[in-house]
Amino acid sequence: MTISPFLIVGCPRSGSTLLASMLNRHPEISVVRNTDVMWLPLRRVVRHGHRAMVDAYIRSQREPDLLLDRERLLGHFGSKKCDPGHLLRALMEAQGELQGATVVGESTPDHLHHVPDILEAMPDARVLCIERDGRDVALSLVRAESTHDWLRIHCHRWLAAIADQCSFAELYPDRFRIVRFDELVGSPARTMADIGKFLGVDWSGMAARTSIRTALIPEPEAAWKTQALSEPDASRAEAWRHDATPRQVEVMQGILGDELQRFDYAIYADLPPAALSDRVLSVAARVLYTAAYRSARQRPPKAAQGNVQGRARTPGTERNTVS
Hints:
The chain is an alpha/beta fold. The protein is 45% helix and 10% strand.
């Protein structure tokens, strides 16, 4: 089956589910919910062949996909190279066949770190990378039931995602598009129209059709992802202003401040420099993040590591500050 594939990636809790649910309402588009096929244990099954990979993938799903037929998936995967990237392609082809869609997406935020492998398996794929203020991301990760509550580690998770985002935007300029969360919720019609052009679909009148059902949220995640099925809410941008305690703001800005400014996010100009204890804890959090997360993730190719300084700033403009 011929499909036009695309990926939705980014740091978790950046708005990928919201973007996927909005796209999934278009009659030509179908989005596969989180597959996480690049998960390290699944990659270790490659040497056992196509059937073993399919069985391992099905067993790995937290909530069974009632539409997923093992033999149908094998029919799409069996003739392809046995690796996670081609399994992902097969999953998307099976989804397109079931839904009658020609433009098929997949939304696993952490696939951001595997973009080169996935694009090697899918040379025709495009990537939408959702970007959100790191303070909102870190606070949301602290509240999510599926993760831990150490704020500093979540800050470093955002920094790692931003570094990869910048690398891949430079490496794949025609295939990798950054979507800012604040623009998605603040100007959904215009943002979705731009995304539609990138994906080759007409988005006229489609931006906020929330009456159309979409089944992108597994039951175990429904408790903290219900907002993703609502109409875009501009107040969710910069939610940290009213959700964070002063101490949390101080900690987050101490770790994220430089990158927040590079990406034109407002910061407080009058916060004191980070205390020595905070700097020590930040280093410890970075080390723990590297050990716990990055060891299982693909680092960007060396050719793409030269420029991770963020989006270019117009000469002469000043950095945003909060008075």
